[in-house]
Amino acid sequence: MRRRTLMAGVGALALSGMAVTSMVRDERAVALVYRGPASLPGCPEAVAALIETSPVGLRPVFCGPQEKVPVSPGALAEAAVFAQPGGGTLRQGWEHMGPHARDIQQFTAAGGRYLGFCLGGYLAGATPGFAMLPGDTARYIDTPGAAVHTPEETVVPVQWRNQPRHMFFQDGPVFRLQEQEAAVLARYSNGEIAAAVASYGAGRVGVVGPHPEADASWYPSGLSNPDGIRFDLGHDLIATVMSDQIQV
């Protein structure tokens, strides 16, 4: 799976890095963004940039086995959000994240927020995964009537809050949920759920199959988004998962 050529260079990485390493005291709530072997280069940085620009007011901090901040109960206790970016296969992702499952479940159940993008959405499910959704996940490309049937990078149409939009997509999940227990934010063109927010204990889980965090560097030559490069859908997901009342 190809990813971005490292966010199209040093400039984009430096931009997201400033949010993490600023010398000015930052009183915003911490959003831990996983960066490690259960992600791919460019994915954590894009999620951090989306969080940094969200009107909600969160401070992204990278965590992972090679980061200054580990994925640990102590680090999670200081955070408001744990974000799991896109990555490789579900099997590989679970191999690395399975040992942290109980900590992430306990963090969320106690009132924390979980954000899952693509692989992070798969990992919110149960086969395998953190089992924090009122249901499970499946591959969109395998569903009847899917707009695409290959794992290549593409753009897919969705209905986000009943408005037609297009989103960057690469082998992301659908969410097979008990809909009375979830707020559906978006559906693919075949009606399968593309983004949703659900409660888990005292916390919330927000998941999305396509990539609302994708910037221009994610698009290979010849691929474009008819709506342009916009981040409002990702900001809506973040605002919804952080809200005390889910708005749909």
Keywords:
9-stranded mixed sheet, alpha/beta, two-stranded antiparallel sheet, 248 residues
Order of helices and strands: HHEHEHEHHEHEEEEEEEH
The total strand number stands at 11
Question: In angstroms, what separates the terminal alpha carbons?
Answer: 33 Å
The residue-averaged pLDDT reads: 91
The percent range for helix content is 25-40%
Strand order within the widest beta sheet: 2-1-3-4-11-10-9-6-7
Portion in strands? 25-35%
User: How many distinct helices?
Assistant: 8
Give a short summary of the structure:
This protein is of the alpha/beta class.
Describe the protein's architecture and organization:
The structure is a single chain. The chain has helices spanning 5-8, 10-21, 43-53, 73-77, 90-97, 101-109, 119-124, 232-242, and strands at 29-34, 58-63, 81-84, 113-117, 135-139, 154-160, 163-169, 173-177, 182-188, 193-200, 203-208. Strands 2-1-3-4-11-10-9-6-7 form a nine-stranded mixed beta sheet, sandwiched between helices. A two-stranded antiparallel ribbon has the order 5-8. α2 (10-21) crosses α3 (43-53). It has eight helices and eleven strands. It is of the alpha/beta class and 248 residues long. The longest helix has 12 residues, at 10-21.
